[in-house]
Amino acid sequence: MKLKHLTTAMILASLPATGAFAAALDRSGQSMSAFLQPGNYFEAGISFLDPNVSGQEAGTSETRRNIGDMAEDYYFPNGAIKLQLTDNFSFGLLYDQPFGAKAEYSGNNVFVSNPATDTILPAERLNAIRDNTINTTFNALSSEQRVGLALQAQGVDLSTPQGQVIYQNTLIGYNNSATVKNQIDTGVKQGITNKVDAGIDAVNNTLGKGNTKVEVDTQNLSMVFGFQPNQNWNIYGGPVYQTVKGNVSLRGQAYSLYNGYDANIKETSGVGWLAGLAFQIPEIALKASLTYRSEIDHDVNINENIPTLPALALLGASGAAAAQNIAAASGKTKITTPQSVNLDFQTGIMANTVAFANIRWVNWKDFSIQPYKFGLISEAIGPLVNRPNGFNLVQYSDDQWSANVGVGRKLTEKWAGNVSVGWDSGSGNPVTTLGPTEGYWNVGLGVQFSPAPNYFIAGGVKYFWLGDAKAQTGAQAGGGEYVAEFKDNDALAYGLKIGYRF
User: Fold this and answer.
1) What is its main location (predicted)?
2) Which of 64, 199, 291, 372 has the fewest CB atoms within 10 Å distance of its CB?
């Protein structure tokens, strides 16, 4: 089978753009292939993604307008160096950007602010609160208070003797004449209505301007130590240093009270670990590895801007008190990036040909982000949306499973190529409005040029059919409600990589 000449094709099992558009925030795929290369090895690569994710308002949205492409192009680099220190010990540094998001809405839809039509709450709910506030305030007034308010509205000074005479005579008329009573009640109720409407207008004017957008970036530096008791086995593990930062802006009618919310996630770091086991039989180009990566905790100071906070007063005295308490509150937010498992396998199947497969699991079901003040507001308004304990900015309902299988072949002494097929389960549907796709299928092509036996240049391209998804806000997460639907979307990923043996 000429397996000693398969080195070129074997490298193709880890082409650039392997993950690129995975479920939830998953991005790089966190490959360990560079560390498992023989001898001393260095590689650097970059992947680009050009997605198209568009849809239409749906579900609880009051309109059915189209939503243009909201997925932004992005790129992410990776690099690795692996040193075979002795026959039995190796060391490696791996850099990648495992998780991320980049999206921005535009046009005329529920994710873009429209000062002419946006309201602090959905129209039906706002009207119910408005009517309840007016009726509750009016019904709580005694006869004396209603008469006093009516006379004050007419400019009568009740602190003077003359004003008191007018007040007593009007009160007698109110209690004995249906006509007088109806006249006064109508005026008082209109006065209350005017104040309530003015208050609603005031809070509606606090709504944000602009459009919904999100950008989240992470960086990983893994320090890996390997022990090879013989040529077949490799036991490895080590610490992982990770940073995370991001910005989120919520705009438009879809977010109601959060229309205008901004969160700036300052860059912070955390430490986790990885561990794995690899087995190989070089004579038949067989290589298999299983790698576990731990969760990584981040205690983040998030700078939150919430201009609509005074709107909590619409909920009554308790809401007004909550608004004051939230404005004065401060605290850190815990963000835990998920644990994952990668299973990689490859084997020679015929002369100069290798088959490969990768299976990845990511524990997105247990992942959520709830910025500190965002959470306090969610607890205050949670009963209105059947979430008495509040809700998260982002959460997912399912774990992610993905698979990539293919065949690589050495074509000449300097050229090799591969083909692959990929699948991703997604992380639940409905899914967050900040990343409204549900898994994918993809096909990929790769080519590698090796000018000399010790280095190569590789390129790959993948086309993704993105899964249809229903998009829901944080207040809807965990239920069946949604505000938009995204269908028939796709993405194109491509990447470059260089590798060098020394």
Assistant:
1) membrane
2) 64
